[in-house]
Amino acid sequence: MRKDIQDIMAFIAVAREQSLTRAAAKLGTSQSALSHTIRGLETRLGVRLLTRTTRSVAPTEAGERLLRTVAPRLEEIEAEVDALGELREKPAGNLRITTAEHAANTILWPALERFLPQFPDISVEVAVNYGLVDIVAERFDLGVRLGEQVARDMIAVPIGPPIRMAVVSAPAYFARHKKPKTPQDLTGHNCINLRLPTHGGLMIWDFEKDGREVKVRVEGQVIASSGTQMTDAALRGLGLAWVPEDIALPYVAEGKLLRVLEKWCEPFSGYHIYYPHRRQGAPALAALVEALRYRG
Q1: For the chain, which residues make up each domain, given as ranges?
Q2: What's the CATH code, domain 165-264?
Q3: Using one digit for the tens of pLDDT, what is the confidence trace for 190-222?
Q4: Taking every annotated instance into account, which residue ranges of this chain make up the domain HTH lysR-type (predicted)?
Q5: 186 near 179, Cβ under 8 Å?
Q6: Residues 240 and 186 sit within 8 Å (Cβ to Cβ)
Q7: CATH assignment of 2-69?
Q8: d(CA 120, CA 122)
Q9: How many CB atoms are located within 10 Å of the residue 152 CB?
Q10: What is the 3-state composition of the chain as percent helix, strand, coil, each rounded to the nearest 5?
Q11: The whole model's pTM is what?
């Protein structure tokens, strides 16, 4: 029975990654050993669980059923085992967090600098990702996103103040282009886009003034993958960037960036840390959430 459970967990990793190579790397084993494990499980169960091609693997109908019915139960067992840590004097375990780059740099790393020395038995893995990751499917313990992006079935705790955005570019850019006066004027400008991993789309720029909301799909010659890249491109005069205000203001103060549309950039809900209800009792998670809680 124990071997079946271990092999089923190996199958779940392959089915979720849809790749023997990536699953083997995640499990810390070789691709050949993992393939042998899956074939052995299929032989014992008497059904094919995966369809293999030269480029990928995908669950069969039987595999989908196993993934749908058994995986959540194994995760519940893991959560209960983790909760036994309450019997320890100190919280312990590994926590996996998915977050955007800005939240990691401004909130997570400063908090972890204080938190981790106090809890030497806790380790933290931080994965920076702009996509709206399904933390349950991707096996993250916690996610950090803006409050309005958190799914309603999650427990969410604010960890930072409200956020404002800023539209900026270098003086050299404005020497060649007229400053926009309204968000609609951005359609005539070279704007620096942000590529989102989720479905490969581009970030929509959101504005609000006196209760009026305006969303703009901007265009330009540069597409970046992070706020840092967007800011660097703006500093080089390659276009207008829409970035968190705290990133832009030091450069604005130095005169390296000029800000426009400031009255259209009203504050909105800041970063929240969120997690599934079933993880609520995990002591390591609870300790970190409490350390991050915004008390503004």
Answers
A1: 2-69, 91-161+270-292, 165-264
A2: 3.40.190.290
A3: 999 998 876 568 999 999 999 899 999 999 999
A4: 1-60
A5: no
A6: yes
A7: 1.10.10.10
A8: 6
A9: 5
A10: 45, 25, 30
A11: 0.68
